[in-house]
């Protein structure tokens, strides 16, 4: 759900839940209209067929898409048209000789990367989650938006689920549906247009677990999707307090690394398979897990190169980073975009399910720890704190003790008091007004051996999320 301006959000939080449900349903009805149109239908029809194509046909299709994409990008985007390295690639069927686009380049030149004549594409504006604190704002065409939902629908179909079936589903992935200082249920709203129960990720505490379990038993969703950290807590709640009435056909996780202990707990609590999904806000990569647990790199979605530190292709069994060319979004075309995520290529590249293409063993580099708020809630996915912060270079959330958080921020020269105030307000909304939030401004944030730093860090942490939950009495 999109809550609009600060005033609109304040108005929403002041409403009784009966009115919130109406708002959620009206919003859901509008989103349903925007998501499921002609482009969605055309893309899904292709995907239902292409999932069974052999590798040769998939490669031919990918080459054709690259050729169309490069022609559009070079001719109608200032950045590519003005750089000689791309000028000779207007009719190419490969991008292997193109320069690599870094995140820094994309952020600094994002206006030049927007396609000219955007008004002809019926665009909507989106932002990255900013897991290092700095988000990117960019346009998405209507074609790309509906196409993305077709890929999601195909994934749900692998569990015999459809978002358009009218069957009840549930989601728990960072929607602030209830005010963060709220102490009593409900911590969810109902979107009747999509038969969707939207559960808050920000009220997960032992004292609220029974309420979440009761809500799930009443709704009986055939599918649950959300962040692994949130769905894992739902699983713990349901295993302890649920009546066993919830038996979904599939659980779909996204946006974070899914750990083995989380998968085991979720599957034990709900009695079904977990289907993991890798995507990104830029919509230039898609890796999905099938009914046999294999991770498939969807070649119809985009071109993903997996390379080592020298930008050479890796071999099966090795770990590499992703260079993404997502040929769906002509409004903001990205060619060989170094998105910062890493994967392990499967040693065995022959699937058991019969689908062709590249198999991925593991998606690395998206793990986060929980923050323990002052009232005992466990809160993950705090990248939202900085989503509108144009003057933040990068940031890190550090938990020094339960209910105490330090925000490490690397600032631009334009950063000022309004920026700090906006971030503090976002922190209070998600962590509650009782949680202490301090700012620590620094020149840079220390990296680990892999050149990265954890966005959420618990001081004294040993063992990540599992250790955090053990310390607070859940694991």
Automatic annotation (TrEMBL):
Segments traversing the membrane: none
Organism lineage: Bacteria, Pseudomonadati, Acidobacteriota, Terriglobia, Terriglobales
Protein species of origin: Koribacter versatilis (strain Ellin345)
PANTHER family xref list: CAPSULAR POLYSACCHARIDE BIOSYNTHESIS PROTEIN
InterPro entries attached to this UniProt entry: ANL_N_sf (IPR042099), CapK_Type1_Caps_Biosynth (IPR053158)
Domain of life: Bacteria
Protein name: CapK protein, putative
